[in-house]
Write a structure and sequence with these properties.
Blueprint (H helix, E strand, L loop, with lengths): L1 H8 L4 E2 L2 H7 L11 E5 L4 H14 L3 E4 L15 E5 L15 E5 L4 H10 L2 E2 L12 H6 L7 H4 L6 E7 L5 E4 L12 H5 L8 E8 L1 E2 L3 E9 L2 H11 L5 E8 H11 L9 E9 L4 H7 L10 E3 L2 H17 L7 E6 L2 H18 L4 E7 L4 E7 L6 H14 L24 H14 L14
Parallel strand pairs: 2-4, 3-4
Antiparallel strand pairs: 1-2, 5-9, 6-10, 7-8, 7-9, 11-13, 11-14, 12-13, 12-16, 15-17, 16-17
Cofactor: FAD
GO molecular function: FAD binding; oxidoreductase activity
GO biological process, one term: respiratory electron transport chain
């Protein structure tokens, strides 16, 4: 098989070296490992299609890998798979400043796309702290959200067209030069969020946005999570709301202790608010702040340097989470009304299953997309805690996954968020595209 793959993409881009495969078969958190037979790195959509044909005909499973930042073992092989990396599909086309769009390869990192947009005087609407490694193809596959979802929406809302290598080894290119296109099925939407189960995204036409002329940022501290949730409810419907981030003071204490980045305000719960617009937003923020029940004077950033200082706290969270070893991560979507109850019960559930563990909560409260990370959680405690937490999420009216997908880690809990008819319909679509089920077989469905 390795020889045939080498003929398709070139011998320099195929390896079965055990050390390379071992490094590529572990997830971003380091908690989950698999086994692969080869790594192949195609350099064009046609080469991706050729690899898929070879693997399908040989009955070999394929796991697709982008930046490998999945937090739900979405890129971990389970069937001695061929790993198909999109890293060489990293071209970024010329930005169309009139139509505000750009065509990029699926393997381009988020940071690369952001730089291209910035150089053209525009911005890309999705931002993640993993921007230097996350690829836009993988982000589309999981419909990633991020720090500015409350304003610009998820990844799917940035996708104007897609190029996809299908499981049968053919290529699909859905491209339209116009924004309004109602000529049949919305094919790009079918592949966004499909987690690579229906095809391999090889290229994307992405929407860009005007850069706001004015920005103002604030961090507010709250004694009670319910008060913060009320503030978020007020803020999220404001015109110009660009970011609305919840930060648990427990994780802020860690960033202060370990990285020298303390919280700028007092409070057990912190809320980062950012407003943007074509006019100065300072007065709007001043009108907003007296309406929230904060427990300390807010820290406000009007100029760029002050704004960056406030954002450092949120950005530093990713760097401090691994202090106690690989954290156990829960990416959840909750209604605002259920967040305070979830946080309290999640701490109790963690204490019950892993008394030594430290639960910390943060995330994008504007759309209820939160990240619960359990630090210092042993592998022995993980199965019981994971199952209990999934049940709690469902009991609180939430979805078991928000922006990170289902992957293989959450596939057993899909039925908590999707009904049997939903799942049956998804299986029908999967079978139509991939009758033998060889592509990303470990992801999404629990067989």
């Amino acid at each position: 098989m390795t020889q045939r793959l080498a003929e398709a993409v070139g011998p320099a881009y195929v390896t079965d070296d055990p050390d390379v495969l071992a490094a590529r078969s572990v997830d971003y958190t380091g908690r989950y490992r698999g086994q692969a037979s080869a790594l192949v790195r195609p350099g064009s959509p046609e080469e991706v299609a050729a690899v898929l044909r070879l693997c399908r005909d040989a009955g070999t499973h394929v796991t697709v890998q982008g930046g490998r930042t999945s937090l739900v073992a979405g890129t971990v092989p389970e069937n001695d798979d061929v790993l198909l990396s999109t890293e060489r599909l990293n071209a970024v086309g010329e930005v169309d400043v009139v139509e505000r769009r750009v065509t990029v390869g699926a393997g381009a990192t988020l940071a690369t796309v952001q730089r291209a947009a910035t150089d053209a005087g525009l911005i890309f609407g999705v931002d993640l702290t993993a921007r230097d490694t996350a690829t836009v193809g993988g982000m589309a596959s999981t419909n990633a959200g991020g720090l500015h979802t409350v304003h610009y929406g998820n990844m799917g809302e940035q996708v104007l067209g897609l190029q996809v290598a299908l499981p049968d080894g053919t290529c699909l290119h859905r491209h339209s030069a116009v924004r309004s296109d109602n000529t049949g099925y919305d094919l790009p939407a079918l592949f966004v969020g499909a987690e690579g189960t229906l095809g391999v995204i090889t290229g994307l036409d992405l929407r860009l946005h005007p850069r706001p002329a004015h920005r103002v940022t604030a961090v507010c501290g709250f004694a009670h999570l319910a008060d913060l949730v009320d503030a978020a409810r007020i803020c999220r419907d404001l015109d110009g709301i660009a970011a609305l981030e919840l930060i648990d003071a427990r994780v802020a204490a860690l960033t202060g202790e370990r990285l020298g980045i303390p919280s700028p305000v007092r409070g057990d719960w912190l809320l980062l608010v950012e407003l943007t617009g074509d006019t100065d937003q300072t007065d709007r923020l001043a009108d907003l702040l007296p309406r929230v029940r904060s427990c300390d004077a807010p820290a406000v950033g009007v100029d760029l340097a002050a704004q960056q200082r406030l954002w450092r706290l949120r950005e530093a969270i990713a760097d401090v989470l691994g202090v106690f070893g690989p954290p156990l991560k829960f990416d959840v979507s909750l209604p605002l009304a259920g967040i305070a109850g979830f946080a309290a019960t999640a701490s109790a559930v963690t204490q019950q299953h892993a008394p030594e563990a430290i639960p910390v909560l943060f995330g994008h409260i504007g759309d209820g997309n939160l990240h619960l990370n359990v630090l210092r959680c042993s592998t022995a405690a993980e199965p019981g805690l994971y199952a209990a937490m999934m049940k709690l999420i469902a009991d609180c009216g939430g979805n078991v996954s928000s922006e990170h997908g289902v992957g293989s880690r959450k596939r057993a809990y899909l039925a908590m968020s999707r009904g049997p008819d939903d799942i049956a319909a998804m299986r029908t679509i999967k079978t139509a595209f991939d009758p033998t089920g060889y592509l990303n077989a470990a992801v999404l469905f629990d067989d």
